[in-house]
Write a structure and sequence with these properties.
heterodimer; A: alpha/beta; Rossmann fold; seven-stranded mixed sheet; four-stranded antiparallel sheet; 11 strands; 25% helix; B: mainly alpha; Serum Albumin, Chain A, Domain 1; 3 domains; 14 helices; flat; binds S-adenosylmethionine
Amino acid sequence: MTLPEGVEHRSIGGETGLATRGDPVYGEPTDGEWRRWDPHRSKLGAMLTKDIDTGLAGDDTVLYLGAASGTTVSHVVDFAGPTYAVEFAARPMRDLLSVAESRDRLFPLLKDVRSPETYAHVVEPVDAIVQDVATRGQARVAVENRQFLHDDGQLVLAIKARSEDVTRDPEAVFQDAIETLEETYEILATERLEPYHDDHLAVVAQPE
Amino acid sequence: MNARNPPEPGWFVGVEPGDVEAVARGIRDGHATESSDWPGRALESGFAEDEEEYYELLHGATIRAARAEVARRESADDRQLAHAIRALDDCTRTSNEIAERVAEWAGTHDEDARVDMEYVREVAEGAGEDPVEQRLSALATRTAELDDEADELRRFVERSAPDVAPNLSALAGPVLAARLISLAGGLEALARMPSGTVQVLGAEDALFAHLRGNAPSPKHGVIFTHEAVRGTTREHRGSAARALAGKLTIAARVDHYSGDYRPELEAELADRIERIRARDGA
Ligand SMILES: C[S@@+](CC[C@H](N)C(=O)[O-])C[C@H]1O[C@@H](n2cnc3c(N)ncnc32)[C@H](O)[C@@H]1O
């Protein structure tokens, strides 16, 4: 079983899938305290659905890079400990703020993940970095944020091929990204996220 | 993590926990080269009683800081940006025009007189007894000040265009983005334009000449200043301008209708232009 504590496969409304306990956020089906975690709307949700071992245990301290309006982050705080959520676009941040309001261990930061020095005075060393930024230089972002990870912490990364180069073969893009990551990380697992997300690679890694 | 150097201050250093504004400012403006056990250090320094209280203060502070910054960015307004870019163009045009006058006038007694801001600044410095020199130097001083104001306005445009239109600014650069918004009459108007119109924005004179039947149709307006067009050989410039206008139009629509940042637009544009230029070799 590789699901973090606080994440379960449950049947909600006649369909079995991942679920966490918390207030609903995006109109997902609920059953009592439990709410569906839709793998089509979340790369981390897809990883867990595909039984990828993310190393997340439950109660971890998390730095989440690319939080957008908080779809995935809201599930992360349901099972994790203090969660720092970085997002630099104002529009999704407005939605993220309403998610954070009712979750007292979620800390939204309107910052650019390419400039870790602008939030290093706030973010403590964490057990896990979850990254989903879909921007050019995704591997570089992970390398530059390595400083936030405990030496035995886990990087859980989704790489979107199209964000790097729309025309290159995704496998070639992923190969380059892995090479960059290997400067500072040891790769534990990689797996494509089809059928939930096309041309995305999941990477789990640990600081070298 | 590993505090080798004298520890840097965390977001909470030097502020009272009760001063919510100052605490939020600490989140927004602070920085550090390295992460550290902030909760532990906040307890040591007496900022918070226990971890529970620390996280409660952090929660309030991060929300307040992010909300203030979101509000500031969203109030960034396309009309102000359009005025600023027009004022910038006015200052530049006027200072150049008067610089010519200064050079022409100064040329009556200085054979090294030339039309540039450096020379204007030299003239501004030297004020003698002579009433002509006094007028000339005063005129030069005002010209230099106009030129300084143009620089200030450019900095203002560069700062505020990414708040008003993040994608358009990323693709076009902040100054060209502001110029397109200004020519279209606002971001919404730009977002509603077909890309063929965006392509010739700023070339209205040439366009009307073409419509009257005495000129070829213009291939590009202000977007000509973009590297994607300027850096492409003449025979492919029309295609480059069309491709660029297409992407700029999409960027303006995303900025107006959703406001998300879509970094892949840049990669897509770079790819299109590369392909167009590659036709040369073939
Ligand atoms: C694919 S979305 C993330 C979706 C989110 N992880 C979820 O599953 O709910 C990528 C997000 O990363 C953000 N982003 C892109 N570049 C960024 C940067 N340099 N700094 C911070 N956020 C960035 C984008 O604004 C966008 O909201």
